[in-house]
Amino acid sequence: MGKITVAVSESILPVIKQEEQRFEEWYSEAHVDLLTMTAREALTRLFNDTIKVVVTSRPMNAEEREVAKRSKLDFQEYKIAIDGIAIIVNAKNSIEKLRTTQLDSIYRGLITRWDDVGGKKSSIEICLPNRNSGTFEIVGMNVLKGGNFTTPAQVVETSPGMVQFVSEHPDAIGMIGVNWLRENNESIRTLELSDPSAPDSLGIRGKYFAPFQAYIYCGFYPITREIYIYSKADMYSVGAGFISFITSAPGQQIILNNGLVPATMPIRLVELTNKGIQK
What we know:
alpha/beta; two-stranded parallel sheet; 10 helices; 24% strand
């Protein structure tokens, strides 16, 4: 059947790697090479026609859509999942939950000590991903409302690098996609978050939620994003076959098994809840 190179955002690599492995098990004559990069880099490669299929950890933004429109770029767009971004701290940190307004103040540099949010008397060490990553952009948009991050203690290029920094620094705070939580150890903890600006219709104001599937699906967890595939692949190519697999029931089950919410299959809330309450 042939082969194709697919650009994938690093923050969602574990789940897409599993998709690639299962796809190749089912179709032994097809081969998919995954090329890891940031969301912005992946979309740039799509625009430059050096990559035919990209999997991004966020949808195209307004600027990118305008570029595509001006260039008369012909592509297909597939929403494949809803993801949560987990805020992580060192396991020795006594903080268990934050309001999004407190998280905003931490990332802007207005709160610089853990004791200002009920923790120990020590300075907060912020670890950020590459500014071109979907994780950086989504947190900046959802939490900082487009504001600027303060200068961090550390910038890392990968999710394992984020986990390592937070694991080795007791006062650190970081952010990773939920599919990376399955890869990690007891040296980090995920914070519960509360959004004071949540709509009254949700009935959750003042309540805290971890990035479990049920809470992501219901809109209770405040930092979520949509995962997309953008493609210029031919209809009968390996790339089209790979997309069809990811959007099919077996492909969406892999997404479900990795803690994300599937976008193209019916959702059984009881199943999400049962998965979500496990710690």
